[in-house]
Amino acid sequence: MKTANPLALVAGAGAGLGQSLLSRFQAGDMTAVGLGRSRPENPVGTFHELDLSDLEAVGPTIADLIATYGPPKIVVHNTAERVIAPFPETTLKDYQRTWTSMVQSLVVLGQCVLQPMVRGGGGTLIVSGATASLRGGPRFSAFASAKFALRGLTQSLAREYQPAGVHVAHVIVDGIIDTPRSRDLHSLDPAKMIKPGEIAEAYWQLAHQPQSTWTHELDLRPASEGF
Questions:
Q1: CA-based Rg of the chain, rounded to a whole angstrom?
Q2: Are 8 and 30 contacting, i.e. CB atoms less than 8 angstroms apart?
Q3: 21 lies in which domain range?
Q4: Does residue 225 belong to any structural domain of this protein?
Q5: What is the average per-residue pLDDT within 53-60?
Q6: Given a cut of 90, is residue 77 above it in pLDDT?
Q7: Which residue has the higher pLDDT, 15 or 60?
Q8: Is 226 inside a domain boundary?
Q9: Per-residue pLDDT tens for 93-143?
Q10: Are 80 and 144 in contact (CB under 8 A)?
Q11: What residues contact 144, with CB distance under 8 A and at least 6 apart?
Q12: Are the beta carbons of 197 and 20 closer than 8 angstroms?
């Protein structure tokens, strides 16, 4: 049975950007639901803890949500598995792990939501990319190869589903997202970091573009970031 508030799903709804996205969607009068392999402290909205690469886990969960709330109007794929190591020390399992976390999880998510979104009259699927989606740096071979694949998959989904009314977009988040963890890891002035709430606002605006001006790829970076 549908509720008055449309459904917004965030796959990879951890602390930082994932929770900021859910907060923005909830503030926009949407039913905010997070999916992820580990539950953040005090999650926004409803959170389902599961393996996003496992169709047998994700499929029934999303089917139940659609039965309750109707097809989602906004879906965000926000998973990441960062492996940073010299190439000789990067194992085959590292490559498989990054691909499974980022690419396979989008395949699973897309198969669960895209056809229902078409039948429900459309919506928006946004995929979170990174600098590594465009440029493979040293020691980032596993991460960059998966991010490149994720970008290509997103392009294919856009060309297949946009004519059916589903806006598919890829966002390159070029910079360090300002979270307590990133402040501990990086010796960087927080003024030069990307604010997760401001990324979430950009995603919200992207999801509400008119059909005559859909953006497929959006770059977000601080003014101080070189590119």
A1: 17
A2: yes
A3: 7-220
A4: no
A5: 98
A6: yes
A7: 60
A8: no
A9: 999 999 999 999 999 999 999 999 999 999 999 999 999 999 999 999 999
A10: no
A11: 132, 133, 135, 136, 137
A12: yes
Per the domain annotation, does 1 fall within a domain? Answer: no
Number of domains in the chain: 1
Amino acid type, 3:
T
How far is 152 from 205, CA to CA, in rounded Å?
23
* Cβ atoms of residues 31 and 96 within 8 Å: no
Instruction: For 130-159, write each residue's pLDDT tens digit.
Output: 999 999 999 999 999 999 999 999 999 999
Q: Nearest-5° angle of CA 84, CA 21, CA 77? A: 55
Domain of residue 147, CATH code? 3.40.50.720
Percentage of the chain modeled with pLDDT above 90: 87
The reply to whether the predicted model has a pTM over 0.90 is: yes
Residue 227 belongs to a domain: no
Residue 119, amino acid: R
Could you give the CA distance from residue 86 to residue 71 in angstroms, rounded to a whole number? 43
Q: Which residue has the tokens 């402290």?
A: 41
